[in-house]
Amino acid sequence: MNPNQIYTLVYIFTTFPPEVSGSARFNWERVQWLAKQEKYRVVVLTNHWEEADVPTVPPGLEKNLIIETFPSKPWIVYNLLRVPTFSAARLIRQRLAYYQPDIITVVDLEGLFFFSTWHLVGRNYARKHGIPYITEYRTDYYSIIQSSTYPAWNLVKELFVKPISIYLYHQCDATLAISPAASRSLKQLGISNAHQVLVRGVDLSALNPSRRNRKCLEPWLTAQEQNNKVIFFLGRVAFEKRIDLLIQAFARLKPRQEKFSLIIAGDGPVDIVNKLKRLAQPIPNIHFIGFIFGETKANLLASCDVFCSPSPYETFGGAMVEAMASGIPVVSVNSGGVSDYMIDGVNGYLVPPNDVDGLTNALEKALSDDNTEIIQKALQDAQQLSSEQGCQNLDNYYQQLLNSKPTSYSPVMH
Fold this sequence. Notes:
With 414 residues, the chain is an alpha/beta fold. Helix content is 40%, strand content 18%. A hairpin with a 2-residue loop joins strand 4 (72-75) and strand 5. The longest helix is centred in the middle third of the chain and has 18 residues, at 154-171. The radius of gyration is 22 Å and the shape is globular.
């Protein structure tokens, strides 16, 4: 690879700000990081939102970071996310011809294809020009679909979703598994072009136990709750997050000790949010506060007493890492990506999936025990899961691809 050459990376994103998911935030962090390396021109092709704009490119990066949007629509599978319209595919093809990329990366293959463009935009360009066409496995859609939380999908998953997903991933030259859990899911699906590259990470720069201040909780609690111990959930309010289990576990805690509160931060489809609010309505001291960002989020993470996520379907679990870096004990599920970096009783508390009794007992233990050693170990381990480390891993992978100089693309094993 010529050290003076600037290589063009094109990202086709369906998850990018103003969307507020952890994946969207990381995608914004990674393109800035790569552009700052001054060896890439990074081109982002992403959804247009009528309600809000994509982020502004920071000063000094205008030459190496370009963001363009294409027409989009709410995704029928999850209407708070947006996906390209069928007509957007033509515009994306035109931009690929203009920018002439050295690598094309498609993030969220399912969102790009299902009920959207119905084909893999950019694949023909990559084949014609002999460049890598890469995707990343970031969401374990298949496990979510086969769970009982979406029973209607069980009728079509084996005959429709699974075979088409396998076909789509095998149309790509490489599928990057962002975690060991993602690798296991890909193997279970029968996808053979997977390469484990630990791409995902969390921006830890604003997260610190020193932010702990009980006054940060005052706006969210009633006057009678100001001295309560507070359990915190942060994330999308969706069926697969199993917030219903957390509400049930919290209800079982109440008779044992009245001085607890539960804050649920995030949002989701109106019907799901309303269903969870109805479940929580008879139980005192549960507060739904919507999305929170920036300083507010960092302060709340450090100031609550326990973080809890009962979701068994995380391929990474960024919110858990954020809580670990904020100095509060984490209660989660021994499943998916969380079990790759969290050890029960060492740097957090893990329970079996869908186990309300286990979740209740773990919450009670985390709220009553001395967690000093667990918190200290979690703080250390969170540093290995930073977004900067994830970006460096991705950079190393790209360097291998570009150094291989294939005449016809052959994926680099990693």
